[in-house]
Amino acid sequence: MFTGIVEELGEITAAENLGDSFRFRLRGPVVTEGARHGDSIAVNGVCLTVVEHEGDEFTADVMAETLNRSSLGALAVGSRVNLERPTAVGARLGGHIVQGHVDGTGTILAREPSEHWDLVTVSLPADLSRYVVEKGSITVDGVSLTVVEAAADRFTISLIPTTLALTTLGVKQPGDPVNLEVDIIAKYVERLLTSEGATR
């Protein structure tokens, strides 16, 4: 489990297209400290498994399902990525409950810069719209954010200076894809209310 509080901006140092999958090598001195084979690291909000670890770099495989649901297939050598290690038991939950299981992708539609923050509009896939509510939580490229306004096909978020400086959202521009993960609690509530036994 993650919290959507990005620990560092990493970098893709190698990308191998294997046809139905990708193998990435990523640099991240913070998240690789103490990393071992089999550990999880969120990359732009996608939970990936450490295959190999050497120095400040690690290797991870990305399967077809992940490529279909996320924007990781668009990454190339030199791409910057948001990195986060799983939350330790007993640690503060600084963002919200994030699984690293991307539900789909959106596209940056607009940026409205202010003196100290940016208002960003992101497109919203129709099948995710019902989970996104005003002042609710959403994960965008692995960053835990609060929804400012929610419409049927888009939502807006405000990015504070820290988010602008320390994550990829500071440089994303209209037309760029982003990974979206909706609040898992909303999905569980929907499942419980619509299950066969909910009306008994």
From TrEMBL:
EC assignment: the record states 2.5.1.9
Q: Does the keyword Repeat apply?
A: yes
**Record flagged with keyword NAD:** no
Q: Please give the coiled-coil regions recorded for this protein.
A: none
A Pfam family of this chain: Lum_binding
Reaction(s) this enzyme catalyzes, per UniProt? 2 6,7-dimethyl-8-(1-D-ribityl)lumazine + H(+) = 5-amino-6-(D-ribitylamino)uracil + riboflavin
* Entries under PANTHER family matching the protein: RIBOFLAVIN SYNTHASE, RIBOFLAVIN SYNTHASE ALPHA CHAIN
From the Swiss-Prot or TrEMBL record, give the protein name.
Riboflavin synthase
